[in-house]
Amino acid sequence: MKKLTNIKVVAFDAYGTCFDVNSASKILKKQLGNKWFEFSTLWRTRQLEYTWLRSLMGKHVDFWKVTEDSLDYTLESFKVSRKVRPKLLSLYKVLSPYADLKKTIQMLKLKNIKTYILSNGSPSLLKTLIKNAKCENLFDRLISVEKVKIYKPHPKVYELVTKQYHCKPKQVCFISSNPWDVVGGGVYGFNSVWVNRNNATFDRLGFKAKVKIKKLSELISLIK
Hints:
2 domains; Rossmann fold; DNA polymerase, domain 1; 45% helix; six-stranded parallel β-sheet; alpha/beta; single chain
């Protein structure tokens, strides 16, 4: 595997990369039925699509509003009772962290690497996720798109990292499970790493990930 050198900051996407976006629906799979995974997938797909569309239209609202709107669409599409809505939203605030998240960050800190979150999530949502994962003292910064009021993959979002640390894009390792996000960070100049846990197909957007890994813990040996 190709090593990354002269890295000063590792910036993590949050949703789908550090936290399992399907965990809320999985907990309520009895209420959602045997299509709970399809339900979760549509919820996530609409959530992302709404961020892109709002960015294009210049009609920004925070990520929680987007999450609510996309859930409402999904409930209606699957004809699921709205009685589960409050519980699903509550669970989305405390999505399950991936098992190797905490250890990975701890090991990166031993290498004197700064660790950031760079996310579409609002500051309050990110703080709740990190607290639930017991990682409050491991991330140096939680950076939200709310600072620029536009969603990924707009370059202004990735620029938040280099402005915060006063570094060059090539000194940043950016990791995401979302191929379009990997592309966005890579086009900006980051060393973009794709965590591909499910053998997915990478998007055709004229850019390839610097490195592909299957789990977060592989970052430890990747960064020299």
